[in-house]
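Honest question from a wet-lab person: if I give you the sequences of every part of a complex, can you actually get the arrangement of the whole thing, not just the pieces? Trying it with mine:
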Amino acid sequence: MSWHEKSLTELSSALSAKEISSVELTQFFLGRIAKFKGLNAYLDVQEEFSLRDALVADQKIARGEAGPLTGIPVAHKDVFVTKDWKSTAASKMLESYLSPYDARVVELLGGSGAGMVCLGKTNMDEFAMGSSNENSAYGPALNPWNTNYVSGGSSGGSAVAVAAGLTPIATGTDTGGSIRQPAAFCGITGIKPTYGSVSRYGMIAYASSLDQAGPMGKSAKDCALILNAISGHDPRDSTSLRKDAIDYQALLGKPWSNGSLPLQGLRIGVPEEYFAQGLQEEVREAVQAALKKFEELGATCISVSLPKTKLSIPVYYVLAPAEASSNLSRYDGVRYGYRAKEYKDLNQMYERSRSEGFGAEVKRRILIGSYVLSQGYYDAYYLQAQKIRRIIAEDFQTAFTQCDVLMGPVAPQVAWKVGEKSKDPVEMYLEDIYTLSPNLAGLPAMSIPCGMSQQGLPIGLQVIGNYFSEAKMLQVADQFQQNSSWHLLAPSSAGAQI
Amino acid sequence: MTRSNWEVVIGLETHAQLKTNSKIFSGASIAFGAEPNVQACPVDLALPGTLPVLNQEAVNHAIRFGLAIGSKIAPISVFARKNYFYPDLPKGYQISQFELPVVVGGRIAIEVDGVKKEIQLTRAHLEEDAGKSLHDDFVGLHGEKSSGIDLNRAGTPLLEIVTDPVMRSAAEAVAYAKELHSLVMWIGICDGNMQEGSFRCDANVSVRPIGQQEFGTRCEIKNLNSFKFLEEAIQYEVQRQIELIEDGGVVKQETRLYDPDRQETRSMRSKEDAQDYRYFPDPDLLPLHITQDMIATIQASMPALPSILRNTWQTEYGLSDYDASLLTQSKSTADYFVELLTLIKEDLVKPAVNLMSGDLASALNRDGIEAAQSPLRPSHLAQILLRIQDGTISNKIAKDIFATLWERGTSGALADQGVVDALIEEKGLKQISDVGAIEKIIDQVLLDNPKSVEEYRSGKEKAFNSLVGQIMKASKGKANPSQVNQVLKEKLSN
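Yes, you can. This is the full assembly:
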């Protein structure tokens, strides 16, 4: 088994057994990144910084000070600011921007924290706005299973990097599905924890009340390990939760109850609205097969209803742009970032800098957001959306009185062809129907591979849990992965043309 | 119509910069006068990924203010974003409070020409200040003269205090502003430095014919940073609006600026140009919860308010209105007096007030310092007062002692105990109360001034005073004046 196919635990063992050094492991992955440059998974790679960090990790390992993640490489979505790598959010606006500080997540995983080695920054939709990674100012990250297809978005680069073996694990952020949907499209595992679990400090904001960081990896186990390292209260983020640390690994490998089957007693809620019109047949079949597998493992499936699912699209596409229109006002060309070359006066400097620096989708959402916050429209759009947002959250609580977790598809379809939907933004928005509502409710949700389409594109199963139930979700997902092999499939073994 | 047919309507919005160690949403310092941009951290610069964290001390100050004016402290208030583009506004929005402010209602009492009035407040809310655009005195990266942005002030905590439109003259507006100014300093939430912009007013001014119910169209005059400008600007604006209407014109709702050099207000932007600020709750900050416990803790640490102190002193010690106001002009003076009261008996309160409003007040004024910085501490004043009372020194000598101690104290701290006695000893200033010694001086003076003696005896009362003067002079001011009077009278009547 090659290094890029190993789990984090296997890599950690290899490092502590001195089978390989962190420097060698880092070089190995840097080599693969160079080799598969065509996937466009990374936006910035700085070998010297990665190797410098690997050397420090090796010294820690030699001194016997290594933790479970020390010396293992990681890739960060370019939405996290970093001191040594450019932080562009895949925008021309921040083309050469270097941050004077590291994001909290980067800090926690890096040298002063878990001791992981950063391989670089991964591609994404500009300012995390998009579902296909085609909104990157630096070209889309391509699906490693078939490079004619999109990787999903917005954390497309991270999904591609993990799926193609260009990093053992990566970070992502999820505002309306940005971890789960690319994870599904690329056949990997990703989890967005409960809102407030992971600090947003140093995450370039898209929609503050929805943005949440999480890991993207090869398995639920790998994700649990990273989640343990990045979650916790941060006094610099006022929305970060003051809560005792949760051990996300605590339930891994344990049975759900003391029944004879590993998941005996688990009640899975299956929202009927997630299987409505518009769901691709192959996806339906794969998800149903997965549910069947869960039943074999002892779980019971219960039909539940989330009646406001359809409204999650308009609600999200009011609230997220509203917050984005304000969050992105700081990119004005005054203090940092892109400034137009020529302008007559202050207003023209703003107009030109922002017109030239932002891509079409970002501008579209700024316009929508400004509109819904305007005098005379605020009540009808923004306030109304907030009301429905609360109802959506209540619907979930009603469902959770009947079940322990909810399961359904991540997306109505598998990955589409590059360029296929980029002309019609609304068509693209509709693809987010199953992933938006957990963000609106602040609930944890994850994506695990559960099948392949006939064209050889991965299909994802979504697991939605109640607040702070990540450990249980990971337990359930891990039991599935112990008893299936979808997550072990890799594009190379599937004969992808990279 | 003439001016007497018009009623003036004024509401004030005051920005008080809160006295905290750091900014309202970041840890950067707010000290005034630093080099441009050295007190701006990543949060103040609105670098990507940064987030605001509320400074609890700013909240405590808002609660203090609310308690001082009898407001309702909102159990839940909300920070909102006010969105607009300007180079000195780094985030492209100002974090303020919009629909749910922290302080609701309250009253401030004023007095104009002996008429008392209570000014009703609408609200007070927390917000951050913007930076400054520098046009004349900024030096660019390569040493060139340039326009620039200084973000040191960006994020400075402000309390915006808004009144109802209840003031009816510039004098009332100024009285309110002065009362508010002294209150925010009194409760320690603002340094009150108007030149540095720590306390600045916007005035909303309109006029209406007397008897008319509805308000006239108002104009807002921005950024008045002295009481004088506030008064002048309102007076000019009232006159302008009246003349405009009387000439058949219409007042347009607009924002105006006051030009102190020309003593006139000028239009800055009209209502049509008014921006839509697209307010919405800031998703980076949780709603601000204030519990009864927090309020109680702050209430317990509140200083006694000037109005309370004035009442107490007037009833307990019979102080005049004038003296009571003088002693509560600043918290520093009041604190000084409170300390002095603990050191003296009740029969010395009146002399103490006189000493404070006389020698102390003029020395403080001359040196431009607060009572808290006075080189003479209340203990020194108490010693002086005691020595006057027991006849050791005269009032005149007391003045000399005060002056000498002030001088010495200014160049080095005075010892707390026995300083006054030591000085009396050192300079031999002890009053002569020995009758024999006084008689000896008087005899000599009478011998040297036969003409005055003659005049007195022929009925000229004035001559007596002249003789007293000669005697005091001969004793170098040390003779006990009442004894001098007594002995002299006896001698002259013989």
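Two things worth pointing out. Residues 310-386 of chain A form one domain. The CA atoms of residues 22 and 71 of chain A lie 5 Å apart.
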